[in-house]
UniProtKB/TrEMBL annotation, chain A:
Cellular component, GO annotation: signal peptidase complex
Membrane-protein topology: Single-pass type II membrane protein
Compartment(s) where it occurs, according to its Swiss-Prot or TrEMBL record: Endoplasmic reticulum membrane
Annotated protein name in UniProt: Signal peptidase complex subunit 3
Pfam families listed in its UniProt record: SPC22
Source organism of this protein record: Galendromus occidentalis
Signal peptide per UniProt: none
Physiological role: Essential component of the signal peptidase complex (SPC) which catalyzes the cleavage of N-terminal signal sequences from nascent proteins as they are translocated into the lumen of the endoplasmic reticulum. Essential for the SPC catalytic activity, possibly by stabilizing and positioning the active center of the complex close to the lumenal surface.
From TrEMBL, chain B:
A GO BP entry: signal peptide processing
First-tier enzyme category under EC: hydrolase
Membrane-spanning residues: 21-39
Gene name linked to the record: LOC100905859
Membrane topology: Single-pass type II membrane protein
Primary location group: endoplasmic reticulum
Enzyme Commission number(s) from the entry: 3.4.21.89
Gene Ontology MF annotations: serine-type endopeptidase activity; signal peptidase activity
Name under which the protein is recorded: Signal peptidase complex catalytic subunit SEC11
């Protein structure tokens, strides 16, 4: 009755169910946590160009070229169930063609144990700011710093930092290929 | 007389064992049916054709490693946003891909243009899409990652990599259920 096999089986089953229960409690402990904090954003150079995006077509599209500043301290967002923060700078705007336009301009991965300070001064975007058409001139663009919380186990929520920055692209295209 | 009684006894035994066998078979079918029911029920609750997926590649590291488990939802009304981690299917590729949305455009009629990228990749996913495809559409998206559990997916990865293990595990489980006397 109480053979080695049944004992091993009992230990295995008990370990598995306690691990499951603990993981579930772990998830519950941070499930309703609000991961928000203040963020300071700003822009330096703001230029719009008309350039073809050859990865899509030969047609010329509006390309926004901006430099920006970010100042935020995300250290306090880390708790025992945060493995990583995926931080990204989002640009949102409306054009004649599109009701919603969202573009990631820059991102940064902050892992547990790394510095939570996000500081960028006069930085160019990491990804090209292509519009879907020719709608960037004189368009107001809202910048916001967001983060996706990657837990050890649990939900994967997105939060926006408090403090947005809005700028408007000029009415004229800038000359020159790159800047 | 003795023959009749013998037949009667063996009949009784046979009936008993038949009931027992039937019970075990029904028990087995019940387990299979409940597993199927849970899976299909999850599909209804999450609105996604595959509510649970296993991460197979390292393209989302360090967020997701191979073998991690993701829970997906795919509600029609939920808006797609940049920063969301989505699972999408490409025509001509069997295995769905788990990557992050980095660009999103939506027209007033609801038409969408979605561009994705893996956190661990240096370029966007246009090279992974079908030839001539520059954007994903809403219909390409199987679900959005909502929940995360590490390591659990290794079980299915092992079973898929070693089919014999799969048959062995399923066979042993099945035998246990059928042969268990209670």
């Amino acid at each position: 009755m109480y053979s080695l096999w049944t004992r091993l089986h009992a230990i295995f089953a008990f370990t598995l169910s306690s691990l499951t229960a603990m993981t579930f409690l772990f998830f519950l402990s941070t499930a309703f946590h609000q991961y928000t904090t203040d963020v300071k954003l700003g822009t330096g150079k703001v230029v719009v160009k008309s350039v073809p995006d050859y990865t899509v077509s030969r047609d010329e599209l509006d390309l926004g070229v901006i430099t920006f500043d970010i100042d935020a301290n995300l250290t306090d967002l880390f708790n025992w169930n945060v493995k990583e923060l995926f931080v990204y700078l989002a640009a949102e705007y409306q054009t004649k063609d599109n009701q919603i336009n969202q573009v990631v301009l820059w991102d940064k991965i902050i892992q547990r144990g790394q510095s939570g300070i996000v500081s960028a001064k006069n930085v160019h975007s990491k990804y090209y700011f292509w519009d879907d058409g020719r709608g960037l001139r004189q368009t107001p663009v809202k910048l916001s710093l967001n983060w996706n919380v990657i837990p050890n186990a649990g939900l994967l929520p997105n939060f926006a930092g408090q403090g947005e920055h809005t700028f408007i692209f000029p009415a004229e295209y800038a000359k020159g290929a790159r800047a | 007389m003795s023959l009749l009684s013998m037949i009667g006894v063996s009949d009784e035994i046979r009936r008993m064992s038949f009931r027992q066998i039937a019970f075990q078979v029904l028990n087995f079918l019940m387990i299979v049916a409940s597993a199927l029911m849970i899976w299909k029920g999850l599909m209804v609750l999450t609105g996604s054709g595959s509510p649970i997926v296993v991460v197979l590649s390292g393209s989302m590291e360090p967020a997701f490693q191979r073998g991690d488990l993701l829970f997906l939802t795919n509600y029609e009304k939920d808006p797609v946003n940049i920063g969301d981690i989505v699972v999408f299917k490409i025509d001509g590729r069997d295995i769905p891909i788990v990557h992050r949305v980095i660009k999103f455009h939506q027209k007033e009629d609801g038409t969408m243009k979605i561009l994705t990228k893996g956190d661990n990749n240096s370029v966007n996913d246009r090279g992974l899409y079908a030839p001539g495809q520059f954007w994903l559409d809403r219909k390409d998206i199987v679900g959005r990652a909502r929940g995360f559990v590490p390591y659990v997916g290794w079980l299915t990865i092992c079973m898929n990599d070693f089919p014999r293990l799969k048959y062995f595990v399923l066979g042993t489980l099945g035998l246990f259920v059928v042969l268990r006397r209670e």
